[in-house]
Amino acid sequence: MPGTLPGGGTRTIRETLRDASLPRSELQLLWQHVLGKPRSWLIAHDADTLAEEDVERFLQLRQRRQAGEPMAYLLGEREFMGHAFRVSPAVLIPRPETEHLVEHALAEAGSGRVRRLLDMGTGSGAIAVSIALANPALEIVATDASPEALALAQDNARRLSAGVCFLHGDWYDALAGQARFDMIVSNPPYIDSRDRHLEQGDLRFEPSMALTDGADGLQALRAIVDGAAHWLNPGGSLWLEHGWDQAASVRAMLAGAGFADVKSLTDLAGIERISGGRYL
Ligand code: GLN
What is the ipTM of this complex? Predict the structure, then answer.
């Protein structure tokens, strides 16, 4: 019978949490999502008899989680820089590592030198929206090649009341008619298409176009670096997130494209996670 739990006829939260196939914290989050209640409510009501349709919805989500679907897609949201972003399988799930890029952009913009900022391949809009919320004086443009991603990013900006101008198109093609920028940031697809991680964990469910360039992982980074000079005001900067082993390659690209003050910054794990420079 659909909705019947192992053990037969189970109808309370407490009983479903005994299931050891997933972490208890994940089962609790799925219940919070199904019932639209905070964790404290679940704890206070964990022996209540639940409605059949709620149990059914919970079991469906639990089954999808057991098959590996990312929690963020099941819940429809992920927190980034303290804000709840809607996510769907059309966008990369925002990662905590990427907060580093946002924090660096905000630090540079805090100097007052940055007025117009561009986020390329914005996905859920996590980077552009977080920057806009922390520094509303900036003029922020964000692009994406995926119309579905752009619609979601727009929805996130609207719900969080962030002022961001979204443009559709491939990298710099999206910018026709735009003025130059003082800072460009991006978390582009940088995974080598042969990397076996693409067949593991959350990555199996995320959009391939957000993860890999279909080549060696450096092509999107290169396209952004090579086109940046045309779109930066004098003294403007470009900062990119990249893979743990790509920092030297990205620094070489930046230097080769005429950037000065080229450097990489490490994340909390000591990994060179972002690289950038200034175009004089
Ligand atoms: N940081 C992501 C990951 O490893 C990759 C995101 C990207 O390619 N931009 O899993």
Answer: 0.91
